[in-house]
Amino acid sequence: MYAYRVPLIPLVALFVLIVLLGIALLPLSLVQRYRVGTARRLARSWFITLNLLAILISTMLFLVAAAVTTAWVPFAFSYTMIGFALGCLLGILGLGLTRWEPTGRSLYYTPNRLLVLVVTLIVTARVIFGFWRSWHLWGAGIGAWSSAFGLASSMGAGASVLGYYCAYWIGVRRRLRRQRF
User: What is the pLDDT of residue 159?
Assistant: First the structure.
């Protein structure tokens, strides 16, 4: 019986096309992230709880990954914990700068534009830096190329974003519970 085999070249081309499409759409996704992040929102208890649970699960998995990564990348866990702590402080600052609008039956909030921009720029800067370093180390081999992203500092930047959102969503949830609608 004849077994049909999928040619490898079209699969590789499809993979490369998907990666290039993701890179091309990255600026648009960052702009959209900023626009959505600065919009006025209705505080819904179920949505805030769901967001908080998702962020906490992501944070725990990220911290475990950072602890394991420290075996191969020096200071990965340390940078991650420093980034997470700084992100938590930024999240607390964000709560203080958030505009709260309690109405008779609900609570609306608008995150601070400057802090949303700072968090978006942290992600943007690490992505641009990673691409720049990768471009310059491309010919040095896969070992140098994999270190191009500065993994420990990238993990610190990622942890700062997770820390920001952990502190922010915990604060939004506490604020909503205090309103007693």
Answer: 93
Secondary structure E strands in 25-106: 41-42, 99-102
Q: How far apart are the first and last CA of the chain?
A: 69
The span from the CA of 133 to the CA of 153, in Å, is: 13
pLDDT digits (tens, 9 = 90+) for 100-145: 999 888 899 999 999 888 888 888 888 787 777 777 777 666 555 4
Return the DSSP state at 39. S
Q: What are phi and psi of 144, to 5 degrees?
A: -70, -35
- Count the Cβ atoms, other than its own, within 10 Å of residue 5: 6
Residue 7 pLDDT > 80: no
What is the three-class DSSP state of 181? coil
Within 10 angstroms of residue 56's Cβ, the number of other Cβ atoms is 15
Distances from the Cα of 41 to the Cα of 47, 48, 154, angstroms: 11, 11, 30
- Please give the Cα distance from 121 to 30 (Å, whole number): 9
pTM to 2 decimal places: 0.79
